[in-house]
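Lab notebook, bench 4. Still working through the backlog of constructs that have no structural model yet. Next entry is a single chain of 730 residues. Request: give me the structure tokens for it.
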Amino acid sequence: MARLFLKCNFMKYTFLLLLVPMMAWSQSSKIQLDGVVNTEEWAGTQKHLIQYEFDPGDNVSSVNKTEVWITYSANDLYVGFIAYGNSSELRSSIRNRDEAWQDDFVMIGLDTFGDGRFLVNAGANAAGSQLDMKLTASGEDDPNYNINFVSKASIHEDSYHVELQIPFSSLQFTQLEEMDWKVVLYRSTFVGGARSQNFQFPLDRDNPCIPCQSPTHLLLKGVKSTKRAQLIPYVFGGQSGAREAGDFKMGGVTGNVGLSGLFDLSPTTSLEVAFNPDFSQVEADVSQITVNNTFAIAFPERRPYFNEGNDLIQTELSTVYTRAINQPLFSSKLIAQGAKQRTYWLTAYDEVSPYLIPARYTTYSAEGGASYASIFRTQRMFKNSSSLGFLSTHRFFSFGGSGHTLGFDGTYRFPKTYTAGFEYNQSIHNEPVADWFSTGERIGNYTVDLDGETQNGTSGLFYLARNTRNWNSGMSYVFMGQHYQTPLGFTNQNDAQVLQLRHRYTHFFEPDQVWKQLEAGIRFEDVRTIEGMKRFQSVNLQSVMGWANGMLAEISHRIIPYEEFDGYLGKDLFMSSVFFRFNPGERMNMRLFAERGKQIYYNADAPVVGEALFIGSFNDFQWGNQLKLSPSLRYSEMKSIDGAELYYSGMILRLNADFQINQDFSFMLVTEANNFNDTSFVQALLKWNPNPFTIGYIGATNGYSYTEPGYGYKIDTAQLYLKFQYLFDL
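Model written out:
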């Protein structure tokens, strides 16, 4: 996934220009949204210039300038971009929504509350393919966030044009007679083969809050935000087959229906409900190599229902992980964004509830039964995006047992250079009586098996960060008690105290130099149990070098003096890695990596140190304006130190072929072979997706497993499915 603002948590503005707030005036005649920015049509509107490159340059003059016009009507915001440059060198093709992050694109960011809590961003590439995301005050972006807007684009000899129409109803804000929003204007382009990132203002790298430092204001009068009333019904049909007792049999055709809806109670408060929602993913998660991993792995949340407000419930200790709500029969979500206070409240009845028990060396996981879930979050906002918040999660199993967490957290952003934060959580678990585990293991004074015990635990975090133009430093301390659990979060290990110290230097080059990027950093980590027993210590040295023509190399060496695992002590361990990217143009984006070193083989019957190797490549090849091929390979092995014994080896091969018929229709073919477990699958999918919430698709997936030499692979599972859901604006 591409990130919008590279290194945005290190940046701060140092500008002396553009000190006067700028205003956009409402036009009586509506802009003709045709993808061509006619300067006469946009005359009299607020005009800006994106002219400062902040990466890889240090607020140098942008090579490719961008003109931007902003205006509005009572119901919509209009933005027009003219992005200058050599059109023959454009990196832009027809994409699915939110898949153009590696292209040349433009974007507007809106801070509708003016306090830096988040930035809602909407834009498009030169082909008109839409991009949107939410950037938080901490610099984290969420590209899965969606709003409903219209984009049109056109390509000209010396530029490309993009026009946006953003309904005010798709944004949350405190409605006043006169409103003052902050605006960030952004362009990603390519100069000499290297990605160039640009703002309309010079960036102050002492201030990690990007929206806080923008000098551009958008003054709005007479805005009438229509309250959204949306219904999204869906129908689903499918047929599945599986191999049983050596014979493959297809089952009967099944179907399902459901309904979700969103209703604005005010411009700052929305209510969402879902009845029997279909939260299945269109595309399967990329398989992970877990052969030498004893802990549960988290996957990103891609279900649109959970994306709105996701930035509010994210915490450093992952107290909330919405994929812990797996198959809800019913759910409701209330979000209120006030001028100083914001609140999130989600409830759900989940028919299948994942159950995780973290421990010192492993995660015990099972598929639990039905439960009632609740997540409540409230946060008080202060100047410069500082905040103080309360979070609670609750899960009650329908047949007995419950889990709860209560927590406080806060962030204070100093006017210059420093940011400090804390988090504290208390968990209370009343175990159900169930047969989901049968391990016979114990954690402290309690059994892992679910026999009705009650356990309490705590966790906490404190961090301090310092960001300047060239130097970025930080320290953090985390503790997780031996019996700490998060019923609706993602805690995969506990009984740990973790101290981290980091320091990094960034050097900036002149625009005409071949070198584009140079960073060097060091990170120290020390891990001990809650009682103080040493478990792990490491020093990581890292450097990043970037050149013209889209070449970048990252080299790191991790020294591990000791690591304790389940009573075994490994000494003088290390891991060296290299990452190389070659992206000379839109047609080719190659990424290669390799890791080699001495580490513990955790999944052995008895832990032992071995020689580990992990190599791979992720690549994208664009064929024409519509077809993209994305092959990838990952190979991992571990041998004994003397090389006489192979502990494990295997690879995962994957190929994604995406054919974009037009902006709304696409065809995808995914194949993956995994010889760690001798399985493979093929997925074909035809998808219609005209907006974030309307979707129709027809697909098929076959799963295969290896039988025996001479017989190859046989089909084990098969699925045929179709789904249609449509957004109705009432």
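Notes after review: The first strand starts at residue 46 and ends at 55. The two ends are 34 Å apart (CA to CA). Flag for follow-up if needed.
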